[in-house]
């Protein structure tokens, strides 16, 4: 049975929280990848920056719906959610645009579990973590490659 360690890209390209958004976007485009793990100086995974995080910068700020109660306005969306949307739209560094604490998998996660996460949660890139350190990433293309017999067993 294939596992994440059999199909992952080991020692993936990473960025730090201080990396500029333009530089990160250029890496995603140049390397034709969907996501970049965000790590600290010791290799600990802090988040992931995906193309969708960068595309969020291009959207307009959603105006929250309100309802009136006793002459007061009450928002139907949380202010914290709205603040996060504003941060992503005006992000200058990876720290502001990344998804913190992403879902991760281990090296021994089965290909079936990887595929289920990708389909059920609409993930394109899954960081592979062992002992608290990033050891690889699995992307949708890695999973598709197994259909063609291109993965090591």
Share in helix: 25-40%
Quick one: overall form?
A: globular
CATH topology annotation? CBS-domain
Radius of gyration: 18 Å
Give the distance, in angstroms, between the N- and C-terminal Cα atoms.
Answer: 8 Å
- Return residue spans where pLDDT drops below 50 for at least 5 consecutive residues: none
Count of alpha/pi helices: 7
Task: Characterize the biggest β-sheet.
Answer: 3 strands, antiparallel
The strand order across the widest sheet is 1-8-7
Succession of helices and strands: HEHEEHEEHHEHEEH
Look at the structure and name the CATH superfamily: CBS-domain
- Determine the mean pLDDT: 83
- Classified by CATH, the class is Alpha Beta
The secondary-structure class comes to: alpha+beta
The fraction of residues assigned to DSSP E strands is: 15-25%
Instruction: Name the assembly state.
Output: single chain
- What count of structural domains? 1
Tell me what the structure shows:
Strand 7 and strand 8 (133-139) form a beta hairpin. The N and C termini lie close together (8 Å). The chain has helices spanning 4-7, 21-31, 51-55, 79-89, 94-97, 111-121, 140-147; strands spanning 9-10, 35-39, 45-50, 66-69, 72-75, 99-100, 125-130, 133-139. It has seven helices and eight strands. The protein is an alpha+beta fold. Strands 1-8-7 form a three-stranded antiparallel beta sheet. Strands 2-3-6 form a three-stranded antiparallel beta sheet. A two-stranded antiparallel ribbon has the order 4-5. It is globular, with a radius of gyration of 18 Å. Helix content is 35%, strand content 24%. The chain has one domain (4-147): CBS-domain.
């Amino acid at each position: 049975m294939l596992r994440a360690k059999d199909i992952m890209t080991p020692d993936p390209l990473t960025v730090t929280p201080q990396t500029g958004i333009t530089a990160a976007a250029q890496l995603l485009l140049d390397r034709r990848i969907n996501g970049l793990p965000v790590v600290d100086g010791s290799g600990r995974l802090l988040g992931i920056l995906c193309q969708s995080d960068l595309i969020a910068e291009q959207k307009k700020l959603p105006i929250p719906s309100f309802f009136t109660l006793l002459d007061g306005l009450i928002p139907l969306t949380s202010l914290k959610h709205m603040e996060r949307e504003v941060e992503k739209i005006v992000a200058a560094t990876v720290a502001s645009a990344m998804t913190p604490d992403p879902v991760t998998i281990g090296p021994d996660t089965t290909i079936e579990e990887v595929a289920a996460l990708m389909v059920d949660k609409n993930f394109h890139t899954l960081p592979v973590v062992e002992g608290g350190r990033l050891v690889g990433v699995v992307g949708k293309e890695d999973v598709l490659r197994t259909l063609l017999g291109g993965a090591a067993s």
